[in-house]
Design goal:
By secondary structure, this protein is an alpha/beta fold. It has two domains: 44-247, 3-Layer(aba) Sandwich (Rossmann fold), CATH 3.40.50; 260-312, no CATH class. It has twelve helices and seven strands. The protein has helices at residues 4-12, 16-27, 31-40, 60-73, 96-100, 128-137, 181-185, 200-212, 234-247, 252-282, 284-291, 297-312, and strands spanning 48-54, 78-84, 110-116, 142-146, 163-168, 189-192, 222-225. Strands 3-2-4-1-5-6-7 form a seven-stranded parallel sheet, with helices on both faces. α2 packs antiparallel against α6 (128-137). It is globular.
Amino acid sequence: MSDPQKTADAVLKGNVRIAARLMRDLDDVCPSAIEVMKRIYPHTGRAFLLGVTGNPGAGKSTVVDALISLYRAQQKRVGVVAVDPSSPFSGGAILGDRIRMQRHATDSGVFIRSLATRGHLGGLSRSTSDVASVLDAMGFDVVIIETVGVGQDEVEVVSQVDASIVVTVPGLGDDIQAIKAGILEIADILVVNKSDREGADRTVRDLVSMLELRGHDSAPVEIVRTVATTGKGIDELANAIERFRARNSDDSAARSRKRAEVTVRELVLDKFRRLTDGELRAHLDLLEAVARRTLDPYSAAETMIQHIGKKSD
């Protein structure tokens, strides 16, 4: 990737091989990849970004797989960013999601990229936004971001997408235990998957009750029943997504500004995290002094901040 402009041009023309290499380099935080992103960013903002989150075992990947089939039937090109858990051995993604979507592997109108969390919290990977932007620049109409499925704190996805789908299933116990507080509040659409199971009616009632507690000023949230393995309810889900887009078309600019704010903040914080890691390795004497109690951690932190500030100037 020696010439950033040539690489950017190839990505904008839809070169899958070069785009895949760029995504890998973005995940590895290669400086050359950042130079390419600077060139393709003006060509982004056209794709519809859809987030899919929820508790493990709810069938998120199966719902995404069914949505891919529906959008492809509409002749829309679909990109998927599937965030998987990190392998404890290699640090790479455990490719469960890509395996479940294997039937789309030979479809040139579908591009699926698995990313490892690499310790990043919130259900996403550090490079999720960058990879979604690459797919956007390549001309994909819909980009679906599927989170790793870690539980109630997967709220970061809402800052990356135009609409958020939260998937749950009947029979979780404790009145829908994984869809409480934080994760419920990010839902634009709620999906009760595997709704052919016993307890689906109760799950819907519980969700309705919880939504009522949000107050009358809260935005309406549709609840859709699906059996994603058979495709049942996926048409209704797609219609709910379109209704949400129509209702919130006036807010799209506000969402874009919020997404820009979050993206820039994350890039700044990531740079400072890496600088901090470098300073920690370069000043082991400070850490040793803190460990011996001859220096307090606050003074050590202030010293490191001063060093980082000098490097940033």
